[in-house]
Amino acid sequence: MSELEPTEHLPRIGEPAPDFEANTSKGPVRLSQFRGRWVMLFSHPADFTPVCSTEIMEFARRYDEFQERHVELLGLSVDSVPAHIAWTRSLAQQLGKPIPFPIIADLDTKVSRLYGMLHPRESSTATVRAVFFIDDGGIIRALLYYPLSTGRSVDELLRVFDSLQTTARMGVSTPVDWMPGQPVVVPAPATADQVEEREEAEKKGLIYRDWYLRFRQPSS
Ligand code: BEZ
């Protein structure tokens, strides 16, 4: 995949995640090096700020839960590598374990602009709290944008990965407030004939609410 010119660009669901090379707290990284793994690319506004500190520590504390889902974490802010190193060392001391994922030092805002992470009415200098959920083929499957004032929920981030990976595996959707292990939504019938197959489908173990709203138990 070729590198795009850094512009005010907002990648959208279903598009290839724009590739880039960047310096991080753990050395140079190229996004495409993670192909074959899922990636959570996320930005935070600034090092040494309180909400960001709680987020990075919680992402690190629950790192194994991302790894169990084959998800690599890649952070970003417009701070320098030395600032990232000093901050993550301080966070590691408080947490009692290292910060295991790299954080991009996007001083020239190249990656921030490539991913639409700068929202000038929210901050003229800092990236908002963006999250890009990138699948193992390098396709953007979901994205979230939160303002500076709202810390993200690790439970929800993991839940989105569980939903996306369930969809990728089974071709189903997940309903409101879905959690792993709960019934998933099978695609609605596309034709009247398929509607008539209802009884037959019921025998296959589908849970029927109406012809367009059918669930099944998930399988691994
Ligand atoms: C914070 O992480 O606490 C924060 C960062 C930038 C603006 C406001 C809050």
Describe the protein in words:
This protein is of the alpha+beta class. It is built from seven helices and ten strands. It has helices spanning 50-61, 63-68, 81-95, 110-114, 154-170, 192-196, 198-203, and strands at residues 21-24, 27-30, 38-43, 71-77, 103-105, 129-134, 140-146, 184-186, 207-210, 213-216. The strands form three sheets. A five-stranded mixed sheet has the order 5-4-3-6-7. A three-stranded antiparallel sheet has the order 8-10-9, with no helix packed on it. Strands 1-2 form a two-stranded antiparallel sheet. Helix 1 packs across helix 3. The longest helix is centred in the last third of the chain and has 17 residues, at 154-170. The relative contact order is 0.16. The structure holds benzoic acid. Benzoic acid binds next to helix 1.
Note the beta-strand portion.
15-25%
- What is the multimeric organization of the chains shown? single chain
Main beta-sheet annotation: 5 strands, mixed
Structural class: alpha+beta
SS elements, strand count: 10
Summary of the model, kept short:
This protein has seven helices and ten strands. The protein has 220 residues and is α+β, with helices and mostly antiparallel strands.
Task: Break the fold down into its secondary structure elements and pairings.
Blueprint: E1 21-24, E2 27-30, E3 38-43, H1 50-61, H2 63-68, E4 71-77, H3 81-95, E5 103-105, H4 110-114, E6 129-134, E7 140-146, H5 154-170, E8 184-186, H6 192-196, H7 198-203, E9 207-210, E10 213-216
Helix pairs in contact: 1-3
This protein binds benzoic acid.
Benzoic acid binds at residues 45-46, 49-52, 126, 148.
